[in-house]
Amino acid sequence: MAETVEHHKVKRVYGRRMGRPMHKARLDVLDTILPRRKVGEELLTEKADKTPDDIFGETVDRLHFEIGFGNGEHLHYIMEQFPDDYFIGAEPYINGMTAFLKDFGSEDVPKNFRVHMDDALMVLNSLKDASVDFLYILNPDPWPKSRHHKRRIVSPQNLEVFARVLKDGGVMLQTTDVDDLAEWMVTQTVNCPHFEWTAERPEDWKTAPNGWMATRYENKGKDAGRSQTYLVYKRRPRS
Ligand SMILES: C[S@@+](CC[C@H](N)C(=O)[O-])C[C@H]1O[C@@H](n2cnc3c(N)ncnc32)[C@H](O)[C@@H]1O
Questions:
Q1: What is the rounded distance in angstroms from the CA atom of residue 126 to the CA atom of residue 56?
Q2: Domain limits for position 6
Q3: Which of 5, 155, 168, 182 has CB atoms 3.0–4.6 Å from 237's, for a disulfide?
Q4: CB-defined site of ligand 1, < 6 Å
Q5: Domain harbouring 91, CATH code
Q6: Domain count of the chain?
């Protein structure tokens, strides 16, 4: 318990937690769905000792993990594409979390997902090695000022965590419409010995992967004339 309290003393996430005020109906999901589908506090040990089975209370074959899912459009989409898989999404922005959860409407809320309304690293650091099949980092905050670059989620330190939790051959997908950030993410990731960048030619990072669904955020960038970069990496086998 003391450890859980510690988490909240530290400023773990930069950026906003709350945007425009929300109607009560929208906030209701924080009392109804969130308590039933959040990663349990007791599982947030940050000791790399929890399996996906511990989190879901059943056998998990394939696990997808999305860091900073925004309004959750991509997370909903992949849940529809792979109904037999399991999903964890982390998003500290309350408006984003409510947007994602309210989209379940009055239908039965599926049991194959969990959310965390805080720093994704709290969950990733709790997972055992080789737990995750797919890791998504879509349009992370660019933090354009040099003095803020250390806040960027794709950093040498975090890449070690991503590599630890990914299974051998597991896939990490990073996207952005900020050219400087794209260059930063590729440089950091190819310098990390655990990842292999799958691109062979420019079309590979300029073209969306097959079956891709662009989020509103991505479309807004395209409408403003920015081009999206899609960076796909494989976790190299452990020797
Ligand atoms: C620019 S938005 C992109 C949202 C979404 N991925 C999309 O493409 O529409 C980046 C999101 O990352 C979230 N974020 C920032 N740091 C995070 C962290 N440490 N863990 C989880 N989410 C984080 C922010 O709250 C924000 O919603």
A1: 14
A2: 2-235
A3: 168
A4: 13, 15, 67-70, 90-93, 96, 119-121, 138-141, 153, 215, 217
A5: 3.40.50.150
A6: 1
